[in-house]
Specification:
InterPro entries: Gliding_Motility_GTPase, Gpn, P-loop_NTPase. The protein has 201 residues and is an alpha/beta fold. The chain is 28% helix and 26% strand. The N terminus is likely disordered.
Length: 201
């Protein structure tokens, strides 16, 4: 075998690595989504909710939640032999948003997870990525017992630009979460191509 080549005569592929953020409100399923698709044991920075945090951690609609992310979640998924995504889940509460700028550095795009029972909780994430011109998709996490709405209704409620994809998903399911990430990559690449075209004209 020739050094540096595989047995089939092909040079080893050096994958392109892309950074994707997973954002949204408190308890929307960010940690769950990262854990569902990660091919490595995900890094989690979860802490138990305490009585001291009850005045600032609104658990309405997610009363069963007893932990919260205080820094980030991290996972990795290989979409193709030549394409690897590094996933960074952002903390959901306002008091940890100072970490977002650090996490957003170098990000290709983002997923904004939404819960139709608490749709207003993702307004801040949508605004964050719009203001920084970071392409994003909205993934509506379809919780059991939550009302189902058409994607266009969610788009109107969030006042999204027509080009922002809205997809339904189950953050617990690997294939469902993977489809959301594929949508992010495709949207971000199309966005980058549009920006390059605008600069060249």
């Amino acid at each position: 075998m020739i050094l540096g080549r595989t047995e089939r005569g092909k040079a080893p592929v050096e994958p392109v690595t892309l950074k994707i953020l997973v954002a949204g409100g408190f308890g929307v399923g960010k940690t769950t989504l990262v854990g569902a698709v990660s091919e490595i044991k995900p890094l989690r920075t979860e802490e138990l909710l305490t009585e001291a945090g009850r005045p600032v951690d609104d658990t309405s609609g997610v009363e069963g939640k007893n932990t919260t992310t205080v820094a980030m979640d991290f996972g990795r998924i290989t979409l193709r032999e030549d394409l690897v995504l590094y996933l960074f889940g952002t903390p959901g509460q306002d008091r940890f948003w100072f970490l977002w700028d650090e996490l957003a550095t170098g990000a290709l795009g983002a997923v904004v997870l939404a819960d139709t029972r608490r749709l207003e909780d993702c307004f801040a994430a949508v605004d964050y990525f719009e203001r920084r011109s970071i392409p994003f998709v909205v993934g509506v996490n379809c919780f059991e017992g939550a009302a189902r709405y058409p994607a266009e209704s969610v788009r109107q409620a969030l006042d999204l630009d027509p080009g922002v994809p809205v997809v339904m998903c189950d953050a617990r399911g690997r294939e469902s979460a993977k489809e959301v990430l594929i949508e992010v990559v495709q949207h971000a690449m199309a966005y980058a191509a549009t920006q390059r075209h605008a600069l060249s004209t």
